[in-house]
Amino acid sequence: MRDSKIKIIASGGLVGILAAILVKLGNPANMGVCVACFFRDITGALGLHRASVVQYIRPEIPGFILGAFIMAKIKGEFKSRGGSAPILRFILAFFLMIGALVFLGCPLRMILRLANGDLNAIVGLLGYIVGIWIGTQFLKKGFTLGRSVKQPEIGGYTMPVFAIILIILLLSAPSFILFSEKGPGSMHAPVFISLGIGLLIGAVLQRTRLCTAGGIRDVILIRDFHLLSGLIGIFLFALLGNLIFNYNAFQIGFANQPIAHNDFVWNFLGMTLTGLCAVLLGGCPLRQTILAGEGDQDAAITILGLMAGAAFAHNFSLAASPKGVPYNGKIAVIIGLIIVVIIGFSKVLDFVRKENKGGVQIEA
């Protein structure tokens, strides 16, 4: 158990220190790694939204997928599986992305923002915990999206092939791929370094199963602090890395934080929606990306939902900016919370009906 605890902390520490290094090498401040933001940038680069400041094929994402794919193949853990409520997964992922873009970051970036002194991330963290707590209440009542089952082998290669296509498009830069000339999308570390770091993180997290939502969920449900130890590792090593590599950009406070806003209510509610969706999906965006590399087609559907959410958010002015949260974004978060809670209750009612039906059959 001690060795296991060391490994999970070390894997989190690796993510934290590499995120700080990516910022040093050119990634946006407080955004060494942000799975939601990176998928948003990729969505823009593919022309699915036209926000010109967030368009770039982030090589870290295909790195995560291929790193997990290679490690799963080596360890004999690559399995083509899926079929667990794909439409509901798509909807949950869609609203997860809406919540993340209102907060301006995925749960991983929330930790990295805090490690660079952004106190708005504390508000987001509280919202994330509340969302996860709500989700665990559904889990306790029997919520499930159903079991994944074995699928044709070729389906498991969908996301690894997509990752390779993204790398080819990034390197060849055809005219139909869009690249930001200013803003966060124009800020990036060297391509092959980013790809290499992505491959390393993907391989390591495939082995340790680190998940931001899972870490908090396990503490609430079963008082298991194993995965939470990895999240602490991310924070501590990102903090150390920022103090070493990015000291001039390190600042503690709420105001003037890079690519962030200090609207407390919507930071809180955005991450509440994100946490709730992540628990019902069975993993945060980072974990879903790793699962997709292992052949999990449910995770692949989740990624498509994330990208659809990113496209919708920027095409219809839902995403926040350092200026604050637009009216459309606030409405979208409220609608998202209502829809996701309805999904939660509906699945719980399905479970109760099946239990009652089974009880009647047994009595007869």
UniProtKB/TrEMBL annotation:
The chain crosses the membrane at residues 87-112, 118-136, 157-179, 185-205, 225-245, 265-286, 298-319, 331-349. InterPro entries: Seleno_YedE (IPR026366), Sulf_transp_TsuA/YedE (IPR007272). Keywords: Membrane, Transmembrane, Transmembrane helix. This is Uncharacterized protein.
